[in-house]
Every structure is written in C-alpha cells, then in structure tokens.
Sequence to fold (127 residues):
Amino acid sequence: MKVITIKQPWASLIVYGYKNYEFRTWKTKYRGDILIHAGKGVDKEAMKKFEHLNLEYPKGSIIGKAKISDCIYIDQSFKDKLAEENYRVYEGVIKCESDLYAFKLNDITLINPIKINGKLSLWEYNY
Fold:
C-alpha cells in the first residue's frame, strides 16, 4: 500500500480530523488508499500552535489510513476555500507564495501505530 510521510503535528492533525488536505510541491496522479506516516521530523512552531488540542504525536510510525481522492493545484480561489474551512490549520499554505498541490484526503481513520522509518515521496509498505 502507498504511504506518505508527514511531519508532526500535521500527521496527527490529519488522523484526528482537523486537516483534510496534505500539501506538496509536486502533483500526483495516484488515487486510492494511502497510509499516513508520522515522520521523525517535527514542526516545532506548529506543535506549540496546536498544543491546546492535547493530541498524541507519535513519531516514526504509520498512524492512520486515508484515501487520496484528488490532487488540486492551489490558486487564490482554493486558498480562500481553505481559509473558510480552517484558517488556523491551513494558514501556512494560505500565506505561501510557492506553487503547491493539495492532496484531498477522505475516509481518514486512526490506526494503532506501526513503527517504521519513513521515505520521501509516496512509498510502498505491505500492510
């Protein structure tokens, strides 16, 4: 199964239902099931920003499962949509000047953590 590695707290924000998009500078044609891997890297500023949620933030583990249903180029109209949906979660993307793509995630579920090292891009794991 395909896996995507995401820094904390972003991985946990996805599996706990606060974030429905993952952002990358590259696009994907892949649609379907994907595992969410919480990498060992941490966005310290974001961790402080979301500490009030009292979520668990495991690192170096697959922590969830979802489906990629779309890959959307982020233009101003899409940034406006993100701002309406959850400005606090998507603030960095809304302010970003770089070209980005949003992977739309659906059917997100939390799973018991599976310890494993992550990789770049989309990678394979036999789940």
